[in-house]
Amino acid sequence: MELLLESIVIDKRLHSKWLNTLSMMENTGARKISASEHPVRVNETILKHAAEEARHAYYLKKQIRKIDPDGCPTYEFRYLLAPIQSYHYLQSLDVLSSRYLKENFQLENYALKYASYLFVTYAIEMRADSLYPAYQKILDKFEHPVNVKSIIAEEAGHLEEMNRMLESFSRNWKSHCEWICKKENVLFNEWMDAIKENVNSNVRIAKVKLS
């Protein structure tokens, strides 16, 4: 992953798309959290999570200006890295998790949406806990003006909160999280492979133009 992130960070166009892709995924996460909310039984933690994910999306968007003031104005495919797989990653994890939780907990409607919120958020926060620090390491290496340190701190806090909420939800939450995290790992690797192919394709095109 380190070499891939280096290839992205040293290329302004790819780096802008990478930040925009992360922003899109954070925004998708915020919208999914909001969609899982019960009309009236919404606690402060869920509101906090949705607000912070939306803020992360906005923050990442603003970071693009440090690379290109006019770069990646929307989440249209042409402004993303591996757009199909980037959208597919979170959507597929949500679907797989909902099916699994429905079967194992016999849940329906908002109870199922809440359970899915807990387990999917846990898996995503576990991933964020490794991805963002790896990205920040490369940014530091190149002394880049972009930084994601504030996101790293907040995601770590989210993970602690999810642990507490899952403990209240089920005594066996860890075994269920293990299954969902395995599925997430497969989807993440597929996503990273697609990102790598997209990056390599851009590098090949650039070389052809220079030749």
Our measurement of the CA-to-CA distance between the termini, rounded to an integer number of angstroms, reads 28 Å
Low-confidence stretches: none
Give the total of domains. Answer: 1
The general outline is globular
Largest beta-sheet details: none
Number of helices: 7
Q: Which structural class should the secondary elements be placed in?
A: mainly alpha
What are the main properties of this structure?
single chain, 211 residues, globular, 80% helix, mainly alpha
Description:
The chain is mainly alpha-helical and 211 residues long. It has one domain. Helices cover 80% and strands 0% of the residues. It has 7 helices and no strands. It has helices spanning 2-9, 12-36, 44-64, 83-105, 109-141, 149-169, 173-210. The longest helix has 38 residues, at 173-210. The relative contact order is 0.15. The mean pLDDT is 94.
Short structural description:
The protein is an all-alpha fold. Helices cover 80% and strands 0% of the residues. The longest helix has 38 residues, at 173-210.
